[in-house]
Each structure stands twice: as C-alpha cells, then as structure tokens.
Design a protein that fits this description.
single chain, 74 residues, mainly alpha
Length: 74
C-alpha cells in the first residue's frame, strides 16, 4: 500500500499583516487611554526597542511618551 503524503497549503496571510490586524482590532475596542498604553507597549515589544534598552520597558517607552507632558517631565 502506498500512502499519500499531503502537505498543508502555505498560509496566505503574512504574519506581520495578521499581527497588525489583531492589534488594530484590540485598539479599536478598548477605551482610548488603555488602547494608547497597550499600543505603545506592543510597538516597543515588536520593534526590538526593548532589546536595545536592555529589557527596561520604561526606558524603551519613554521616548515615545515624552511628548505627552508638553516639554517633557516636570
């Protein structure tokens, strides 16, 4: 008997596009403040900024949220 070996078809959706759509969906359904915080954390984690800041989420996020308070902190 010969067995047929079927391979599953390659996924048609690119992982980056699928991730972007999932993040976009989450941000749309959450309140604005929560969505902003989660969005920034996800951008930092997915862009590699967390690795550049040696694992410190605060140091990685600070440049992205520094403009919120006008001229900076203080």
């Amino acid at each position: 008997m010969s067995q047929s070996t079927e391979t599953s078809p390659k996924p048609t959706t690119e992982p980056l596009k699928l991730t972007a759509e999932a993040v976009n969906y989450l941000i749309k359904i959450l309140p604005k403040g929560t969505a902003y915080c989660i969005g920034i954390v996800l951008v930092v984690m997915m862009s590699g900024r967390l690795v550049q800041s040696k694992g410190s989420l605060v140091r990685a996020v600070l440049p992205l949220v520094f403009h919120i308070n006008g001229d900076g902190i203080g």
